[in-house]
Amino acid sequence: MIRSDRLFGLVAVLAALAYIASAWNLPPGNMFDALGPRAFPIIVGCGVLISALAMILRPDPEPDWPGLPTLASLALATVVLVGYAYALKPLGFLLPTAIAAGILSWQISGRPGLAAATGIGLSVGLFVIFRYALGLGLFALPRALAG
Amino acid sequence: MDILSNLALGFSVALSPWTLFLAVIGCFLGTIIGALPGLGPSNGVAILIPITFSLGLDATAALVLLTSVYYGAMYGGRISSILLNIPGDEPAMMTTLDGYPMARAGRAGEALVISGVASFVGAFLATVALALVAPYLARIAYRFGPAEYFALYALAFATLGGMTSNNQAKAALASFIGLALALIGLDNNSGFTRFTGGNLHLADGIDFLVAIVGLFAVSEVFFFIESHGRESALGVRLGKLVIPWGEIWSTRWTMLRSSVVGFIAGVLPGAGASLGSFMTYMMEKGIAGEKGGFGTGVAKGVAAPEAGNNAAAGGALVPMLTLGVPGSGTTAVLLAVLMTLNITPGPTLFADRPEVVWGLIAALLIANFVLLLMNVPMVRIFVRVLTVPPAILLPGVTMISFVGIYSLSGSYFDLLLMVGFGVMGYVFRKMDIPTVPVILGILLGYQMENNLRHAMTLSGGDWTYLFSSPIAIGLWVAAILGFVAPMFLRRFLRRPSVAEADRIVD
Q1: Based on the number of CB atoms within 10 Å of its own CB, is B328 exposed (0-12), middle (13-18) or buried (19 or more)?
Q2: Domain boundaries, position B142
C-alpha cells in the first residue's frame, strides 16, 4: 500500500506545478516593481515542490488512520457542516443549527436523547445570546416565513 | 523615567470601568477556555475574534478583551492538568507530572493554589519585563529595512517550523502552503488577480480568520468524533481549599528562576510557552536532584512549569509587538487580532500608537491581578466547568465558529472555506504536519512578498542586496541554525510524555 506521506507529497507536487504554471503567466516586473507579481509565487511554488519531494523520498511512519466506520462518520460530519454552511442564510439560524449541532453531538456521544437536547438547547441558547446579548443580526426563521 | 510616564498613559487608558469590565469578562472566559480539554489559548482566542469584531468594540477594548482571554487561558490550562491528568492546552503538559500525583494524594486544592500563585508570579514578572525590554527592541527594529524584514520573516518560519515539528520537510511544506494560500487574490501592487481560478469569492483573498478558526477550532470536532469524547470529565471532585502559605514560600526561588527562564524562552522565536514549561521543569528537577521527589507530587513540580509557561506567554509578546513576528501559535492568533484591528505591529507601533501598546501592557498587569483572584479563591467555579460533556461542548464551539465567521462576511463561501480548513487541520495533524506555520504563512505572506519586492526595486533587481547588511546576515544565519539545529538537538531535547499526552488530548 502507498504510504500516506508519499500520496500527500504527490498531490502537493502536482498542486505546486499547477501553481507555478499559473504564476508563469503573470506579467514580469517593470522599473517601478522589479520583481512583479510572478517572482515570489514561483519561489513559494518551488518551496512546496522541494519539501513535497522530500516527503516522498523520506516518508514518516504511517499515521494511525481511523477505521472505515469512523471515516464514514467523519465524512458525514463534513457533509453536515457543508450543508449547514449553505443552509444558514436561506433557512435562518434556529432550524439548521439544531439539526447540525444535534448530529455532531450524536456522533460524539452516540446518545440520541442527549444529542436532541443538545441540538435544541444550543440552537435556542446561542440564538438568544447572539441576538439579544451581543446584538448580532441573525434571522431566527426562514426569510420566506419571517417576511 | 520614561517607562513610568508610559505606564501612566497605559493605566489612564486601561483603568476605565468599561475596560476593567472587559478584562474581567475576558479573564473569566479565558480561564474556562484554558481549563476545557480540547480548547486552548489559540483556538479559544480564535473563535472569539470574529465575534468580538462583530460587536464593534474599539481597538483598545477589543485588545484588552482578547489578551485577557489569552492570559486567562494560560492560567486555566493547569486546572485540567491537575484534576484530570489531561492538559487543557499544550503548555500545561508539564504540570500534569506533579499536579496529578498531588491531586491523587488528596492535595488537589493545594496544587491549584500553588500553581495559581506561580502563574501569577510568572505572568506578572514577564509583563514587567515586557514593558522594560520591548521599547529597546523597538528602537533596534527601526534600523530594519525591507531586506532585514524579509530575513526576519524567514527566521520566524525557520525556527517555528524547526522547533515545533518532528520532520523538517513537513514544517517547510506547511510554511510554503501557508504562503501560497496568502498570495491568492488581488495583487495590490500590480492589479492582477492571482490563483483565483476565476472565482469572484477569492478575489479578496482568503481571510486569515477563516483559516485560523477552521484549522484550530473546527478540526477539533473531528478529533472528538473520532475518539467519541472518551475523555469526558464527569465526577471531578475537589476537597476543601486551604492556602498552603509555607509551601508557597518554599517555592519562591523556583518561581523566580522559572519566570526568568520562561520569559527568555518566550522571547525566542519558535520556542514559546511549551518549551518554557519544559525547560523550567527540567531545570528545577536538576537543581532539586534525587531528593527533590519530582514526579511524585511536590509543590516545586507544579510551581516551576506554571511560572515558566506564563512567563513565556508574556515573553512571546515581545517579538510580536516590536517586530510583528509571532513566535508561537497563540501569538500568531494575537497578531491576527492586531491586523484585523488595522494595527500594524512593529517598531512604529510604539511611536505612533503608544496608547495601544501601553494600554495593552497596563491591561495585562490588571488582568494578572484579576486572574489571581479568580484562580485562587474562586477556582471551584472553573472546576465545575470541567464536567461539561464534550458532546455538548464541541458542537457548541463549532456553532460559535460558524456564527462568528458568518457575522463577519455574511457569505456562505467563507463558511465552506472554514470547513475546508477544518478538514485540512484534521488531516495535517493526523499526518504530523504542523498547522501553525500554515497560519503564519497566511498572516505574513503579503508583507513578506511586499518586502521582497521593495528590496528588489531598491537594489534594481540585485539579489545579493538581501544579504548586504550585518543585521540581515545575522538573521539569515540564525534562520538556518534555527531550522537545522533541531534535527541534531532533537534526541537531547526529546520532550518526555509529549506523544503520550498528545494522544490523550486528541
Answers
A1: buried
A2: 2-231+241-505
Q: Where are the domains of chain A?
A: 4-57, 68-146
Alpha-carbon span A96 to B82, nearest angstrom: 38
In B309-433, the DSSP E strands lie at none
Contact at CB, A108 and B229, closer than 8 angstroms: yes
Q: What is the 3-state secondary structure (H, E, C) of B112-155?
A: HHHHHHHHHHHHHHHHHHHHHHHHHHHHHHCCCCHHHHHHHHHH
Q: Closest Cα to residue B99, out of B309, B294, B262, B319?
A: B294
Is residue B295 within 8 A of residue B104, CB to CB? The reply is: no
Could you tell me if B474 lies within 8 Å of chain A, comparing CB atoms? no
- Note the ipTM here: 0.93
At residue B491's C-alpha, the angle toward residues B488 and B495, to 5°, is 125
Per the structure, the count of domains in chain B is: 1
Q: What is the pLDDT of residues B163-188, one digit of tens each?
A: 777 788 999 999 999 999 999 988 87
A8 part of contact set with chain B, CB < 8 Å: yes
Kindly report the nearest CA distance between residue A143 and chain B, in angstroms.
15
Average pLDDT value for residue range B301-321: 89
The reply to whether B92 falls in a domain is yes
The model's pLDDT over B74-92, given as tens digits with 9 standing for 90+, comes to 888 888 888 877 776 677 7
Q: Supply the Cα-derived Rg of chain A in whole angstroms.
A: 23
Q: pLDDT value at position A1?
A: 57
- Find the largest Cα–Cα distance for chain B: 71
The pLDDT value given to residue B497: 41
